[in-house]
Amino acid sequence: MRTREAVLRAAGEAFAQNGFLGTSMSDILQRAGVTKGALYFHFSSKEELAFAVVAAQKAAVTRLAEEEAAKEVPPLQAVVATTTRWARAVQSDPVVRAGVRLVAEQGAYQRPMSRPYGQWEDVLTQLLQRAQDSGQLGEGANPREAAELIVAALTGATIVAQATHGPCDLPQRVEAMWQLLLTGLLPDGHKVFVLPRTLS
Amino acid sequence: MRTREAVLRAAGEAFAQNGFLGTSMSDILQRAGVTKGALYFHFSSKEELAFAVVAAQKAAVTRLAEEEAAKEVPPLQAVVATTTRWARAVQSDPVVRAGVRLVAEQGAYQRPMSRPYGQWEDVLTQLLQRAQDSGQLGEGANPREAAELIVAALTGATIVAQATHGPCDLPQRVEAMWQLLLTGLLPDGHKVFVLPRTLS
């Protein structure tokens, strides 16, 4: 199990930096410091590794959302907290960072990824639906469309940040995103901004 | 000049579909239907071609923004119209579509792209600054941060749409984005939504 984790992490670092086509199995092997036999025991191809990195990133999203949803805060606050913690994970965790890049590199793979952004969108739609059900979502906002926008904005912010200065300013970008978006999501009169900065 | 255009368009189609590393000069040659000599007369390497595609995409953004700004509509409406027309260009113009993908593929190039998203952000910041100067921007909104969010959301929406169903639903995604964002950008009390659908 430790070998698998070491390989996944090494693959995350390599994919985050050089993308799918710019990474070779021997790059990953070298970074992971494991034997070729050990690597191929866990992953039979570079594509299988890339899909495992994406699966790990999706699992991280689900885990973050579940943790925030369990806190019994208003659902909109759980959405903000989930995305804010995810932005920090993009900075600190190469597997999460690589997941974003690999998902964006559709066309590089032999087999298609199933619903590459679907699970992120589902998780946020559920929370936003709960917000709507409890009257905490503005009339103009649709849970599914809002979730799609949030996922697109997060994906784009990660890619822009990466291309510009590395992922270092992603949390500030996500905070600025919420400053603007919350006004659109909250019901009229609710001008209370839930600033990510104040969340643990 | 017609050869250069044919090569750029063929390169756009290939890069949009397969990315920078997944495209070869011979793919482009085959699509363009020009001789190898003609191609290399205009572009000495695949990287030079990719940078030319990105430059053409940036020029398209500037042209759209200038056209909309010249209409003397409220600046915020010019922002909405520019992004809406750009979303349609992503659908219809492989060079624009490829530009988005190539810019996102930083790390694949020998030399860095200069300010890959900077020009898009500058163009929108200027328009949003004009909106602010004429009292048409809400107090909570900052022109530069709003421009960064819009560029990130557009980039992300393009990548998500491409990975999911191709760019076919991008204009609807951009419209949904504005539904939510405009509430955050407009001053209090301005609940008039400038729907992209109604723009020419």
Describe the structure.
2 copies of one chain form a homodimer. By secondary structure, chain A is mainly α. Chain A has a single domain (54-198), classed as Orthogonal Bundle (Tetracycline Repressor, domain 2). Chain A contains 9 helices and no strands. In chain A, α7 crosses α8 (143-165). The radius of gyration of chain A is 18 Å and the shape is elongated. The model of chain A is unreliable at 191-200 (pLDDT under 50). At the A-B interface, α8 and α9 of A face α8 and α9 of B.
Give me the count of strands of chain A: 0
What is the string of helix and strand elements of chain A?
HHHHHHHHH
- SSE class of chain A: mainly alpha
C-alpha Rg of chain A, in Å? 18 Å
Which runs of chain A of at least 5 residues are low in confidence (pLDDT < 50)?
A: 191-200
Q: What is the CATH class name of chain A? A: Mainly Alpha
- Do you know the CATH architecture of chain A? Orthogonal Bundle
CATH topology of chain A: the name is Tetracycline Repressor, domain 2
What is the percent of helical residues of chain A?
Answer: over 70%
CATH superfamily of chain A: Tetracycline Repressor, domain 2
Calculate the mean pLDDT score of chain A and round it. Answer: 86
Query: For this entry, what is the oligomeric state of its chains?
Result: homodimer
Q: Specify the overall morphology of chain A.
A: elongated
Strand content of chain A: under 5%
Q: Quick one: which chains have the greatest interface?
A: A-B, 47 and 47 residues
Number of domains of chain A: 1
Our measurement of the CA-to-CA distance between the termini of chain A, rounded to an integer number of angstroms, reads: 31 Å
Individual helix count of chain A: 9
Largest sheet descriptor of chain A: none
